[in-house]
Amino acid sequence: MPAFGKMWIAGEDVEGGGELFTARNAATGKKLEPAFREASNEQVETAIASASLCSTAFAATDPARRASLLDAIADSIAATGEELIETAMAETGLPRPRLEGERARTVGQFGMFAESLREGEFLRVRLDAARPERLPAPKPDLRLQMLALGPVTVFGASNFPLAFSVGGGDTASALAAGCPVIVKGHPAHPGTSEIMARAVGQGIAAAKIEAGIFSMLQSAGPEIGMALVSDPRIKAVGFTGSAAAGKALVTAASARREPIPVYAEMSSINPVLLLPSRLSSGAEEIAEGFVASLTLGSGQFCTNPGLVLVVNNSDCDRFCSAATKAVQARDPGVMLTAGIGAAYATAVEGVAARNGVEVLAEGCSASNRATARLMRVGAARFMSDPTLHAEMFGPAALVVSCADIEEMRAVLETLEGQLTVAMHFDAGDHAAVSELLPVAQRRAGRVLANGFGTGVEVSPAMVHGGPWPASSDARTTSVGTLAIERFLRPVCLQDFPEALLPPALRDTNPWNLPRRKWA
Ligand code: NAP
After folding, report:
1. Which of 70, 184, 222, 463 has its CB 3.0 to 4.6 Å from that of 477, i.e. a possible disulfide?
2. C-alpha to C-alpha distance for 94 and 87, rounded to whole angstroms
3. How far apart are CA 255 and CA 174, in angstroms?
4. Alpha carbon nearest to ligand 1 atom 31, residue
């Protein structure tokens, strides 16, 4: 089914009652049909009230039932057909293979969380038996399980219109945890949001779960998002986007009478460290892989490799000249929105104008498209100029030439938190890697050997997060099964009789969960 200009509130396809807005074709800039209306205040209230009403019952559902729910949503998303892909292509400018792959990934994410629910580990059940005979005081019976936080607001991301938007990883992990979800749709892809919301809603209906657990509100301005984050019935927030918006949401959430967690995935420049022995044997090969990763999806990946650290020698020159040739050959790329294109141009010009920065290469250019850029600066200048540490969201990177490994380590130490650090090395570099790895682990959520961070595997062992500003909470991840923990908290029941215990904590273990026991 195509987009009709609607949103989704607690099981119903509805037209917004607020301001009119239209998406634009990312490639041509032309207005797209249909137009949409933002949610009215009453509609925001209906979505929150519906989520709040079913929150306790949904949190208490059997994990196997929630697993069937996630499977039903996955089937529904898999059946969205051509309309989803064509609408997303027009709204985002992303190519068909990327969007088809992203839909498969989105379906896979729901499947992964369903499997995790069936395994039951996520509830972390702990049973610590009573010892009435203990002296000097008897020991109580203590039973712990993880409980859902309550309704969650998810902000759809512009750069992953399927896998990190309406039915993306934040929504899947919150529903898996037993939390109702209200998505604040991204204004750049309202048609994609509508089709995805309908698919999620139909999956919920097929699984015969209360419709109030999911709504998607169309919105083209900060007000609705802020109203959701500020409402006392909302208990957590998932966000992917700019550091400015992420910080505004964290501030608003912590200023509430009851502060709530905001899991914001924001900006990262994903340093790539090229170590001398490996570089001497493969400067050209690495340059090719690097530029392919840099320009993938017009560089609009949170894991885009925007910084290269390299020891300044003739192999560094070989790398720079091969990367220069590769960048110069790159076609300009369509950006997700005119605003993101303009922000990219401003960021690149800002870096290029800084003292000591040399522009090595510019890709091909065309109006309405982003031109790839490669720039270079010395380590001392880089370390003393915070402007050079900021994300250039698009296909641009800065090469930092370091005197030696010690200086490379110093540069790494000065960086803010990152999603990824990649190291390219061979056996001749092991001593240097041993020195750099502890620093890299302190700086990033994921450290790669001989690869690039673009392409985030959906896996139980994945970490997609990192210290601020890569994310607002480095203790967790937004990709992989651990993402569910963002929306759970531990609760202990002390000395309750078997008949009153929730199923997960009963001696009879009716849900057949894995449990840790202490006698
Ligand atoms: P954004 O500006 O951060 O917006 C993301 C979402 O947050 C939108 O729904 C937006 O709603 C909302 N929002 C923005 N400012 C807000 C505020 N002050 N209060 C409440 N809600 C707010 O991201 P974007 O539109 O996707 O792209 C803009 C820039 O973000 C890019 O140029 C890039 O630099 C960065 N970005 C980074 C990543 C990454 O993964 N690192 C991903 C995407 C974008 P409205 O637009 O409706 O106000």
Report:
1. 463
2. 10
3. 23
4. 340
Q: Which residues pair with 488 in a beta bridge?
A: 148
Residue 302 is a catalytic residue: yes
Which domains are delineated in the chain?
Answer: 7-16+36-266+473-505 (3.40.605.10), 271-449 (3.40.309.10)
Phi then psi for residue 18, to 5 deg, are -105, -150
Q: Are 365 and 317 in contact (CB under 8 A)?
A: no
Task: Evaluate if residue 59 carries a pLDDT over 90.
Answer: yes
- Which stretches does DSSP call E strand in 82-157? 126-128, 142-148, 152-155
Return the amino acid letter for 494.
Q
- Name the closest-CA residue to atom 23, ligand 1: 241
Angle between helix 430-443 and helix 405-414 axes, rounded to 10 deg:
10
How, if at all, do strands 488-494 and 516-518 pair? unpaired
- Tally Cβ neighbours within 10 Å of residue 123: 24
User: Which two structure tokens, joined as six digits, stand for 351?
Assistant: 């870096």
How far, in Å, is the centroid of ligand 1 from the Cα of 515?
A: 41
Considering only CA atoms, which of 388, 376, 222, 261 is closest in space to residue 309? 376
DSSP 3-state assignment of 501?
A: coil
For residues 294-320, average pLDDT: 97
pTM over 0.85? The answer is: yes
Averaged pLDDT, 272-289: 98
Active site residue 492: no
Q: Which residue has the tokens 């997609």?
A: 464
Read off the DSSP letter of residue 157. P
Q: Which atom of ligand 1 is nearest to the CA of 268?
A: 41
Ligand 1: residue whose CA is nearest its atom 46:
221
User: Residue 515 in contact with residue 126, Cβ under 8 Å?
Assistant: yes
In the structure, what pLDDT confidence band is assigned to residue 82 with cuts at 50, 70 and 90? Answer: very high
Residues with CB under 6 A from ligand 1: 155, 157-159, 184, 186-187, 219-222, 225-226, 240-242, 245, 248-249, 266-267, 302, 340, 343, 391, 393
